[in-house]
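Input record (Table S2, row 418):
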Amino acid sequence: MPGTVVIGSQFGDEGKGKVTDFYSDKADLVVRYHGGNNAGHTVVAHGVTYKFHLLPSGIVHGKRILIGAGVVLDPRVLKKELSELKGKTDIGIDPRTHIIMPWHNLLDAGREESRQKIKIGTTKRGIGPCYADKAERIGIRFEDLVDEQRLNEKIDEVYPIKKAILEKVYEIKVPFSKEEVFQEYSALGKEFKNYLQDVSLEVSDALHAKKNVLFEGAQGTFLDNDFGTYPFVTSSHPVSGGVAIGVGMAVNRIERIIGIVKAYTTRVGFGPFPTEQENSVGDYLVENGKEFGTTTGRKRRVGWLDLPMMRTSMRFNGFTEIAITKLDVLSGLEKVKVAKSYKVGDKKIEFFPYSNKGIENCEPVYEEFESFKITGKEKKYSDLPETARKYLEYIEEEIKAPITLISVGPGREETILK
Ligand code: IMP
Ligand code: MG
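Output record (magnesium ion complex):
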């Protein structure tokens, strides 16, 4: 598997956690390269359900895990997740990784509250404001967190600016002093100092030594800051190219790009969603698929699988293969539908439009399939009902990438390799 990256092909929550967990058995290193604790991965291993936000799912198997420079790291969350793991920890954190400071959470909430027309529905984890500071070049990085003097200097410089914005623009009272922030964060820095590691270098050495490196994506393609449904997006780059800048590696070191495709579509937060089903089909999928956010507990919006979206996702990511997840959730519906194209006036469109305005005018044209029953006990591809195989083969042909894994339940053993 040398360089393998797992990518969410839709709006996130495709089931990357389970697939990463499945492949992490063979991995020497599991690496996160963008996003932060806005992510939520659910992994069921040995009958225990784990939920992670910051740490890559591979940590369940005691693998060495790395946090790349493109991640935004909340050290309070790191502390919490590590304490829940009790000992199984071998971690490296890139010195260039930006740190989520307590003002970022307040700014995220303040900004969202103050939005008049366009609310994003962020996870309020401070992700956007932290990436904004990075771009503005006033961010605090992991190398600063672990160096008391530098941390003090940075906080000295940034704190008054953030306090002024919070109080004057958003009318939010800042509940912590500069000294309190310094005390808490310098202690966290001390605690995590030993994790400091040039992740770019370690990954490069590992790949040269032919080790298996698994890059665990977070969020999904259409939440990409540039190529998603802006402004209803996150602030990082979930597309496959994000791995190169998020780790500090060459693009051609990636051999496998696994696109995770949920057998239907979900979205948390606001933004366009052409195949959304606000009806009994939607209610059924929410219930059967337990479609509630891992991070915020919000009910996810649900709809049919959307092939114009998938073709576009293929263009952005270059999937070498596809993993289909939650196929079992479609069981029990009367009919299963897939949007094969969109109708715009009297024109037919096969790709996702580049603007939200364009997306609003799209009317999905559906292909219908007979329903099927999946029990989760299927072990081989041929165990699946013929109607389900027809559905899968249609998707494969339309996306133009082979399906190599099919998930028929949340557990590890409920996985078919094709
Ligand atoms: P933010 O990343 O917290 O700024 O949120 C921006 C948008 O991305 C919101 O619509 C969130 O619901 C969505 N989002 C962020 N992370 C995830 C994720 O891991 N899964 C699904 N949606 C996400
Ligand atoms: Mg999630």
